Amino acid sequence: MSADSSLFDYTPPADQGIPEDSSLVTVVSLRTDSHKIKGKKYWLATKVDDDRFELLLLNEQHIPTGDPQIIGGGEFAAHYALELDYFQQHVRPAMDQQEARLSRGEAHREQGELYSAEMEYADALEVDEENVRATFGLGMTYLEKGDVERAQEVFAKVLQLKSAFTTEHKHMFNDFGISMRKNGMYREALQYYNRGVDLDSTDENLFFNIARTHYEAGDWENCFRYLTMCLEKNRGVQEAQKFCHYLIKKTEEDETMLREMGTGDNGETLRSDILNLLRKMQLAAGVELDDAIEKTHEIRDRMIALAEEDMQMKEIEKNLYNVDVDL
What we know:
Elements: E1 23-30, E2 42-49, E3 52-58, E4 64-72, H1 73-79, E5 80-82, H2 84-110, H3 114-127, H4 132-145, H5 148-158, H6 170-182, H7 186-199, H8 204-216, H9 220-233, H10 238-253, H11 255-261, H12 267-284, H13 289-321
Antiparallel strand pairs: 1-2, 1-5, 2-3, 3-4
């Protein structure tokens, strides 16, 4: 199956996410480590609420990394000591330098300076190999360079990063999906869109992008299904409205599409499922019920007529091949 991949230039706006309100405390260490100079561990401590603190272990480059640990205020006070000087002397400068690397990488990528972007992201990952922004950025850079194989390696790494699966990163999964779709990597794009949905199932833009990916892959059934879900979440998405009306118009003109919609081992069942989805999609877009039913019946009749026409042609071909004549 195939579909026109240049229908829309529209990209839904990315929701950058708003970090939770939290107050930076400082760097802390375990009180039991206070006399151990070698191997002493430090954590960046952030106040989550009145009685909880988030701890992130600092690596050798003084960068917070890994999965966060949440502890209660009592445990925090009893077992951890403040390291005010350590934060000012080591952690803040290291975090500022890392932020500068990431910002330079993003600026280079936006300007199309892909080799410079790759170097900045690589430097950031040398300091923190699990940095989510750097990993996403490097994968996007490889895609924009056309290096699909290396991009896929990075994308596989992202799926293993627990720290990537937070709501604040959902726009990165969306951006990744868009880039992979543009490169014809439909399976990978859907993986990332679905990860975004796992993080925020209320974002209609993700469902629009999933529908568009299925459209470009020629999967009409899932295209209709996810576009309906997008419209059910927000009928006001104008591009989703346009997409819906385009698809209905396409069924009036594109016999190939109609044939694909009704084919398969369970042709009649598939046809029925798709017609139900078409009707639901129209209703989600605000079409009156009677009009949606009438349009669906028209599409059904054309699909049946085409199926009968194809059967007649097969019979004719069969008879032609079975003619027993001597020439």
